[in-house]
């Protein structure tokens, strides 16, 4: 369904889809009991000690849009605000004075060794059957590449791989149900891709390529390329080359396509449940909001705009003479958001100068505006995520764990690749093995990520790699390597030196995108 009209506030729908997670009361009680046991185990692992005078345990309240259940660590009593249960106070504390807020409960849950098993069990309890028919999508990546080179030519982005997949997955009629993305873990191919003008029988490699293409369109890895989709914008740190996180993106405050943000959240949930990745370069500031953790200006926003954070810190402690010398009458009640829009902080703010005595108020208004600039977009993503993943799972994960489960490990080290790579039909003394590892040792992390994408269709670890001698045996030397992403296989030719091997592997990783186009090559 289309998103709301421009200017309308986005209200995320209930995260639990029609049909829910099963028998609702039983599911909530079951999950509540498991969480209660994990919480009790966490306390005992710390060395005992109750959380309340009567050791009744805290009420566990899931945050987000699902209206999660409140569960005591003993008795598994459920109180759901949406169904007439106990309401929560303004600061997140239950009416029971012996109960603790969610964030304090989460600190205890994270200490339990049983937590990973509990996460897995929650995911199994909420999964559905795989689709009866796998969707088949026809994707034109040539048109997508042309759009990526010059997005301004088509603001509808209809040729982007993201849009082609989104439109292709829409139900064809009112009787066809949309995908729910809550499949079993073993269901590792969500749709089948037919790449136009590319010869491929998709047994998983084409599907993984489509996910990688969408990831690259949403958050391009190169700072020199335009962003082909409107959903995310580069952070000020990336634009200014400042701060530690210089390759990050944040949701675009101007983009009102909430249905697509919600779909992005569903894809994130599917990645969390399965073995595939949706690589999104988002700062902890965004992941914390998605996982329901609190964000703060001093701890989190420096990953978005470190210059502004430092400026406001200095402004707050500077004397009046310095303030008037630096700003005079030029500082007004406005701020610039991540999408480069200037907004007024108060009515008529653009024409109202900030005086020294009111600088504290100005600082608070700027902080509030920037912290909340993308709250509707994040809420839409979270709503989509909660359609696929139970709230209890997010409560049991840190934001770092959520990011890693969705995106994979960004560090592609040679040691990790050695553990995941298997050589077939090679003699132990074969120089190709030696040259291969020398080449990868000389690669940057980005080079290795690109190489991983060339072989497996994934750009993050973990991903297994199988290496065979080139298809023509020993007849070719210094040829480009070939790969099969469906089987995660690299066919490695002979090379006269490690240097040549490095050059050929790097060239293939960055330039060999199309899959066997000999049958119908693209015209240059």
How does this structure look, described?
With 524 residues, the protein is α/β, with parallel strands linked by helices. Helix 8 packs across helix 16 and helix 19 crosses helix 20. It folds into 3 domains: 96 residues, no CATH class; 281 residues, Alpha-Beta Complex (Hect, E3 ligase catalytic domain fold); 106 residues, Hect, E3 ligase catalytic fold (2-Layer Sandwich). The strands form 5 sheets. Strands 10-11-13-12 form a 4-stranded mixed beta sheet. It is built from 20 helices and 13 strands.
Number of helices: 20
Poorly predicted spans:
1-8, 14-26, 46-101, 515-524
Average predicted local confidence, pLDDT:
79
CATH fold-level label of the largest domain: Hect, E3 ligase catalytic domain fold
Q: Write the CATH homologous superfamily of the largest domain.
A: Hect, E3 ligase catalytic domains
What is the terminal separation in angstroms?
A: 38 Å
Count the E strands. Answer: 13
Order of strands, widest sheet: 10-11-13-12
Name the helicity range: 40-55%
**CATH architecture name of the largest domain:** Alpha-Beta Complex
CATH class category name of the largest domain = Alpha Beta
Query: Radius of gyration in whole Å, from Cα?
Result: 26 Å
Total individual domains:
3
Q: What does the overall shape look like?
A: globular
Question: Biggest β-sheet: count, sense, barrel?
Answer: 4 strands, mixed
Q: What structural category characterises the helix and strand content?
A: alpha/beta
β-strand percent reads: 5-15%
Pfam families: HECT
Keywords: Transferase, Ubl conjugation pathway
InterPro entries: HECT_dom, Hect_E3_ubiquitin_ligase, HECTD3
Organism: Monodelphis domestica
């Amino acid at each position: 369904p289309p998103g709301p009209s421009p200017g309308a506030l986005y209200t995320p729908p209930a995260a639990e889809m029609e049909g829910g997670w099963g028998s609702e009361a039983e599911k909530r009680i079951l999950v509540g009991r498991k969480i209660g046991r994990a919480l009790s185990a966490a306390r005992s692992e710390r060395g005992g000690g109750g959380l309340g005078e009567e050791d009744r345990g805290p009420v566990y309240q899931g945050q987000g849009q699902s209206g999660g259940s409140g569960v005591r660590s003993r008795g598994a009593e459920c109180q759901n605000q949406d169904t007439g249960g106990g309401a929560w106070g303004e600061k997140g504390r239950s009416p029971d004075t012996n109960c603790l807020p969610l964030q304090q409960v989460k600190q205890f849950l994270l200490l339990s060794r049983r937590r990973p098993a509990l996460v897995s069990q929650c995911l199994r309890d909420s999964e559905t059957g795989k689709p009866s028919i796998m969707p088949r999508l026809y994707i034109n990546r040539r048109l997508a590449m042309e759009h990526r080179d010059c997005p301004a030519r088509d603001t509808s982005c209809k040729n982007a791989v993201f849009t082609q997949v989104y439109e292709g997955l829409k139900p064809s009629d009112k009787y066809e149900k949309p995908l729910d993305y809550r499949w079993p873990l073993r269901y590792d191919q969500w749709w089948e891709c037919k790449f136009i003008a590319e010869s491929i029988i998709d047994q998983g490699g084409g599907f993984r390529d489509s996910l990688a293409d969408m990831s690259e369109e949403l958050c391009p890895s190169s700072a020199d390329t335009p962003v082909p989709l409107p959903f995310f914008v580069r952070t000020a740190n990336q634009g200014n080359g400042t701060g530690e996180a210089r390759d990050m993106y944040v949701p675009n405050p101007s983009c009102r396509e909430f249905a697509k943000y919600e779909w992005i959240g569903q894809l994130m949930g599917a990645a969390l449940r399965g073995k595939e990745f949706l690589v999104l370069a988002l700062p902890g500031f965004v992941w914390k909001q998605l996982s329901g953790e609190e964000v703060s200006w001093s701890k989190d926003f420096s990953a978005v705009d470190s210059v502004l954070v430092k400026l406001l810190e200095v402004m707050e402690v500077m004397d009046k003479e310095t303030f008037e010398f630096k700003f005079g009458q030029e500082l007004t009640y406005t701020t610039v958001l991540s999408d480069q829009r200037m907004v007024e902080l108060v009515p008529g703010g653009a024409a109202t100068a900030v005086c020294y005595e009111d600088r504290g108020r100005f600082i608070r208004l700027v902080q509030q505006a920037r912290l909340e600039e993308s709250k509707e977009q994040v809420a839409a993503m979270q709503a989509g995520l909660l359609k696929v993943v139970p709230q209890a799972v997010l409560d049991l994960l840190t934001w770092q764990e959520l990011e890693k489960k969705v995106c994979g490990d960004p560090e592609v080290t040679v040691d990790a690749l050695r553990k995941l790579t298997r050589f077939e039909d090679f003699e132990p003394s074969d120089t190709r093995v030696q040259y291969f590892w020398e080449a990868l040792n000389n690669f940057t992390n980005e080079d290795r990520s690109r190489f991983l994408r060339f072989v497996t269709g994934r750009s993050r670890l973990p991903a297994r790699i199988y290496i065979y001698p080139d298809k023509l045996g020993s007849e070719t030397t210094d040829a480009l390597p070939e790969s099969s992403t469906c089987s995660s296989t690299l066919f490695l030719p002979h090379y006269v030196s490690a240097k040549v091997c490095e050059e050929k592997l790097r060239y293939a990783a960055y330039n060999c995108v199309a899959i066997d186009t000999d049958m119908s090559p693209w015209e240059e």
